[in-house]
Amino acid sequence: MTTQIQETTERLVGAPIKRVEDPSLIRGAAKYLDDLRLHGVAHVAILRSPYAHARIRGIDASRAEASPGVVAVFTGKDFEQLNPLPCAWQATGAENFVVTPRALEIDKVTFTGAGVAAVVAETREAAEDALELIDVDWEPLDTVTDAERAVEGGAPQIHESAAGNVVMDWTCGDADEADRALADADVVVRQRLVNQRLIPTPMEPRGAAADYDPATGSYTVWMSSQAPHVMRLLMTAFVFGIPETKMRCISPTVGGAFGTKIFLYPEYVLMAALAEKLGRPVKWIESRRENYTATTHGRDHVTYLEVGAKRDGTITALKAKTYANLGGVLSTIAPGIPTTLYARMLSGAYRIPAIHCRVLGVYTNTGMVDAYRGAGRPEATYAVERAVDLVAHELGLDPVDVRRKNFIQPDAFPYDPGILAGLSYDSGEYERALDRALELVDYDGFRREQAKAREQGRYLGIGFSSYVEICGVAPSAWIGTTGQGWGAGLWESANVRVHLTGKVVVTTGCKPFGQGHETTMAQIVADELGVALDDVTVEHGDTLGTPFGYGTYGSRSAAVGAVAVYNALQRIKAKARRIAAHMLEADAEDVVYENGRAFVAGSPDSAKTIQEIAAAAAVGYDLPPGDEPFLDDTSYYDPPNCTFPFGTHVAVVEIDPETGEVDLRRYVAVDDVGRVINPLIVDGQVHGGIAQGVAQALWEGAVYDENGQLQTSSLTEYAVPKAEFFPPFELDRTETPTDVNPLGVKGAGETGTIASTPAVVNAVVDALAPLGISHLDMPLTPERVWRAIEQAKA
Question: Which of 12, 69, 369, 411 lies 20 to 30 Å from 258 when distance is taken between CA atoms?
Fold first, then answer.
């Protein structure tokens, strides 16, 4: 037997190691859902409603059934026995208001793109061709697509169970206290903010396939999902009413998600049901247009903001009323985004004594809205960071000074902002990140350049965003029992096995879709066990082969999932010390474990390697009394708190007054995500996040017409940015480890998206300040900016 020993003591955690996943992705060898080949598979196409609001009087599928290659056609009535999909996060407990999708809609549709019939055919082309042959007798109904108008008298009633189209009327904070603080303030700034609807646009659209085994009554469902264990739980317990043991969910390589692949969708349920009815495997792959109409969207808030302050810039109160458009039906965790993840983060990085937020969750005749990268925190940060700049503008103060004056100070941590319902910010040095950003951007130098430019009639602007976000969302005692609306904990799991040869296999309940789990988790294992990185394999995405886990979102994979791996490793190392002590005829208390070797303290020359220990554990015939064979441990980690990354981002822009075009000249980001496992991967996450956040500020926006037709239903109309739109991003970090977990990690996947949007908007408004402009709603397209300039001049 040959063993491979990591000779160096150099630590891998903290090293910028290239991702081990990338070669298969770059070479096209990775297996996505559409690469799945099942023997005898039939292909599914879904007929989607062309109306945003209509009753279904009847469906005639006879012509489609006679079409060449068609196996069968199904409508919603064929699946009446299945329950509607569950809404797993009900922020107010008002279950009677909750309306969710079905596998196929039966009587009524409430958004364009809802599925009403499914064609199963021998080829995908035959299935899609037959869709045109299905005749539906529609009764069109009046529509409403605007959340504010939907709650007004006279608006069309979308669901009878939700009077005035209100899903939830939710509050946090003390309204009376906020009103008193506003009344006592030296100045009160009021502003209506629009956080427009976005379409997430992952590289890979959704897909699903299924097979059914009549001998065992078991389903196997493949899906492009961020959380396969959660999908199994929701489908078996709430839709099919069968034991979890009767369904296996597999998520292969996922080509991006940004939150949209967390949720249970009708198509996943439909594929399982079709496979059972037909007795053969079925497969469905979403088109890009389907992805835009039938997959969840993000954001879509209208907020009325009131901010009170003293004349020196001290913020004394913040009050918000937010209309959150949740679409025509509720997605899996839709109510949790504008409540727990938005309203509870409205303190931002600041000491604000009085905060109150009221959220009206509203049904409209639009597509479902749920988590999109950042999920509630971008909306909260936008409101808070615009509020700071609005106060600075009103009082004639430098926005940097207003931030500095209101920051939570380092000695105040752990800090309770009063609206987190039992949690506290873990750690932070907000001013240090701001100071580093000012240094990098040469703030004083920029202001001098800006003054000269204004004399020349040029519009230069600088914008700041000093954000804090909530990551590692998991604590069961908080999210499951304090009225947050989620009916379970969000702990995470990991299994670590050290095989006879010393090779290590990790299975995790997390599910990557581009974050680099296979690299970062392997770095932790290699460091803790002292093995080579190449000797570690990380597996995920199959409910049959991995311990139950809640999946990947909310920047929780490191702060929760990787900590489960770390905890399992500590128990494996403890067992390895006991076995080594037995092999060395020593007391276990006298044995130390370092860099892949166990030895009696002071006698490293007589060490046993992890490979030798693993071999002894595997053969099992000479072990310490009471120890079981094999080095294998499963850990379930439920953290005591969330983590709270922070930082300051700075955008520098120049605006062409003749066209309104915004040129992003510089972008500086100083983030603090706690301890960094792999800086190369973190930088990549920040890059992608900045691009998405800037895109919301300047270009992206989903648009419905008054009839509920999505006008931005393809990449021709929806403005996803190109790389050439951006300057080189200038990244830096401070490091304030958290004490929430033993790794000190906080989370990095969403920082860029959260921070960048208000930084860019603040920069544009700063550039236009000489014209008296204090606010513009996103996206800040050339036309919108040009019109604002012309109106200001007039």
Answer: 12
